[in-house]
Amino acid sequence: MLYVLHEYIRSWLVANDLYRFTQVLDRIEFRALLASGVAFLVVLLLGPRTIGFLTRMKIGDSGLSDAEVLKGHAATKSNVPTMGGLLIVGAIGAGVLLLADVSRFYILMGLVVLVWHAVLGGFDDYLKLTAKHRGTGSRQGLYAWEKLSFQLGIGVLVGWFAYQQGRGVEAPASAAESGIVAPFTSEDNRPSLNGDLTAQSSTSGGSLAVKPAFATSPDTGSQPSSLARTEPKADQAASKARGPASDRVGQRNRAGDKILQPQEVSTPLEVRSENQGGQSGTAGSDISGSLRTSAGEREGELSTGLAGSAQAADSPEPGEGVAGDIRHVLNLPFQRTYEPGGGGGQTLNPNLIFLSMPVFILFATLMVAGMSNAVNVTDGMDGLAAGISTAVSIGVFVLCLIAGNQGWAQYLLLPYVPEAGELAVLAGATAGACLGFLWWNSAPAAVFMGDTGALCLGGILGYIAVIIRQEFVIIIMSMIFIIELGSVALQVGCYKATKHRVNPTTGKRGWRPFTIAPYHHNLHVRGWPEEKIVARFWIISVIMVVLAMAMLKVR
User: Where are the domains positioned within the chain?
Assistant: First the structure.
């Protein structure tokens, strides 16, 4: 709750000149990286105690396996504590609750996804681990249809709430609607004019200085000039401390510009006329027509041109009117969300496909349930799932920062999702928790994550993919997870389709494409050492993350 506390005492910090020491918390990038560090330290420091507790409670792997070829391998891991996913869940929760803005819908829904899968996986693990003590005939965990029902259930909820969140999003049509002081957070930036325009007058020797009302922030990064960032949160805090804009009429902001009444302003541009004597004036309400200056007809003509620019600057924001729909777009590989040029990518691609509610919910359900199952079936070797999840989470962390920053998103022609930048804290905490867990889960593993951790990791990755509209990119990053899940689906599907036939070579019913599934076990029984399988799958995952990130620029 550190960030929430910081928001609560912001005005006090500004009033006592202490805000400069804490303003770094307004940077999402900093909070996300710090959440990663917090999650890593939580797992690292609490690991020994948690492992000891699980060992004393005899919550360990039984060393049994349904597959005959894996019984020897499974026996070597008997009595290793499982349900270590509790460490992962606790670390992610700690990082998010401490450093994220928990008032945001996407963060709250992310925590629901985390807890939902933790409870589901924990119950499944408990039934598996206590089956031996409960006697012969006791069930080995949840039935497949029971687990899948809960996974599909949370997927439907995510899809429905995410679709509703994207409806009716409106942006202020002009600065007048926001009382001229219109600060936006770092993840909700609006395009504005950049730089001062100065027009010289040949009649009186004076000049017209047209200055954007929205100051350009120094942290624009690589944004194009037409996508200048707006006031940073430091200015927001100062504005809050001074009171509402209506109470500060006649005062001057940090740039020295007079704060006007909303009705005095019809454009986010302030036009000042300076003559040879150095005197200046402000033209506010008359900018929509001809600028009233004493420079003569030539300045009047110039004023008309400047008025046209002012009207263009006051045009609707990118996606305004369909701002809610952009959160429902089907983001296909290599497809542009915005048209290049035309004011820095402010025009939506007319060929975009917008999903209806049923189709959107279907996509969300398949993504959340599919990813949670994919990570779960991959968790079969020391460090395998944790290492791959770390790599993918880092890639998702970058995607969240891009999706939540209007300048970056439009520069890369990707969907801009307001408030999605806060999910970078969740992704960062996930990466840190996985990296910390890898400390204890690397071969030979001291603890297994079990379904408690695996279902959570997959659910979070699928959930974030749905919100930031990057399902296909994250699927590419998670290619190892997808291959593992596909191998299981193929193995089961082929067997069920041919189970009534007898193989003349083996004399067994049904045909299976692999000796055993998931695929990492198939490689193991073919002679690959476990450590080599894990290391090579890590390498492939890193390559896929890099490839997916490179694809962002190919539009």
Answer: 2-168+354-551, 180-313
Quote the distance between the C-alpha of residue 9 and its chain's center: 27
Is 50 exceeded by the pLDDT of residue 446?
A: yes
Strands 347-348, 207-212: pairing is unpaired
> At 209, is the secondary structure helix, strand, or coil?
strand
- Residue 285 above 70 pLDDT? no
Tens-place pLDDT, residues 20-63: 888 899 999 999 999 999 999 999 999 999 999 888 876 666 55
Higher-scoring residue by pLDDT: 409, 72: 409
- Which of 335-339, 344-348, 435-439 ranks highest by mean pLDDT? 435-439
Query: Percent of the chain having pLDDT more than 70?
Result: 65
Residue found under tokens 């687990």: 147
Residues in CB range of 362: below 8 A, 6 or more apart: 159
Q: What is d(CA 3, CA 38) in angstroms, rounded to the nearest whole number?
A: 14
CA distance 452 to 147: 12
What is the enclosing helix (H) or strand (E) of 393? helix 384-403
Check: CB of residue 484 under 8 Å from CB of residue 378: yes
Cβ–Cβ under 8 Å, residues 417 and 465: no
Q: How far apart are CA 102 and CA 443, in angstroms?
A: 36
pLDDT at 348: 85
Asked if 84 contacts 60 with a C-beta cutoff of 8 angstroms, the reply is no
The values of phi and psi at residue 481, to 5°, are -60, -45
Show Cβ contacts of residue 307 under 8 Å, excluding neighbours closer than 6 positions: 287, 288, 289, 290, 291
Dump pLDDT digits (tens) for 430-441: 999 999 999 999
Can you spell out the DSSP letters for 321-383? TSTTGGGGB---TT--SEESSHHHH-EEPTT--BPPHHHHHHHHHHHHHHHHHHHHHH--STT
Which residues contact residue 554 at a Cβ distance below 8 angstroms, ignoring those fewer than 6 apart?
334
User: Which H or E run contains 233?
Assistant: helix 233-242
SS3 410: helix
CB atoms within 10 A of CB 366: 16
CB 152 within 8 Å of CB 165: no
pLDDT of residue 135: 59
Mean pLDDT of the chain: 75
- Chain CA centroid to CA 377, Å: 24
Q: What is the mean pLDDT of residues 108-124?
A: 94
Query: How far is the C-alpha of 175 from the C-alpha of 195, rounded, in Å?
Result: 18
- Strands (E) in 110-167, as ranges, are none
